[in-house]
Amino acid sequence: MADRAKPRVVSGMRPTGRLHLGHLAGALGKWADLQVDYDCMYFVADWHALTSEFADTSGLTGYAYDNVADWIAAGVDPERSTLFVQSLVPEHAELYLLLQMVVPIPWLERVPTYKEQIDQLSERDLSSIGFLGYPLLQGADVIIYDARYVPVGDDQVPHLELAREVVRRFHQFFGEVFVEPQPLLTHFPRLPGLDNRKMSKSYANTIDMADDAKTVRKKVMRMFTDPKRVRADIPGTVEGNPVFIYHDAFNPDTAQVDDFKVRYRAGSVGDVEVKVALADAINARLDPLRERRAEILARPGRIREILRDGSARARTTARETMERVRDAVGLRYRAGQESAP
Ligand code: TRP
What is the pTM of this model? Predict the structure, then answer.
């Protein structure tokens, strides 16, 4: 349960699809580890998902539950951490609105992800206020809980820089109310997709956390390797080869991996042998997760209950913060505040 002697960590994930090995090697593995030293709050960023997925919201809640099943499978423990849903704590939106009063629009326009995403997702209409405000909402998500640290990938560091600048500007007008959140950078391997393009569900090149052992093996067998290596007795390239990137990320038997690398470079091991060992390693890693996932899903309504309880707890803290914030801003209507007529 929440332990305030430990510094607070807050992080969120958008429910826009199933989680895959990229999530597990990255944010999710980290989330589980952080529970030892931090008071962790992890949430479903469903409003953030809406900023780009508003045209089709049919998958939203389904992905939310499915993602949380994977969080728990990966070792995020609802007894130790607070798991909640952003939209079930509407105080995030109130804080976001008050922050908007002091944030110049150009601060948002110059956030690197803003223009990048508009270019990359050119088939979407991202001209909304909601999309422009994405990083500001993210700031509200964490400062409302006095988060000291926010585990993020390097692409999200500018969002936290913005959050800190916003906190400072808010303090200039209204006095000290917030903690400035710091990024907790995670240096994890960027996993490529099975086809060596960027891993993305739209390329159908992911291994999903919920894939069964047979599916994992099938996917690994069709993974790209060194395209120049047309026969097993030709020396191959290990660097940038997806099969070896995955071995490094998921095979704990480093002696085996080193041996494969030596033999691969020498042209004395076939792709199939390397891939079978990789599929085995991934399946060994996923087996305990599959068990925990099946356990939690065998209890109907359990995930909904975890999120409802967690959201209620998060909301208690968020409400306290908002009383402080309203006082600071000068919105004082509670009994005993200011002079009622
Ligand atoms: N922007 C994050 C992402 O896409 C998701 C997110 C929303 C988040 N609010 C947050 C992450 C607050 C950390 C803290 O990955």
Answer: 0.94
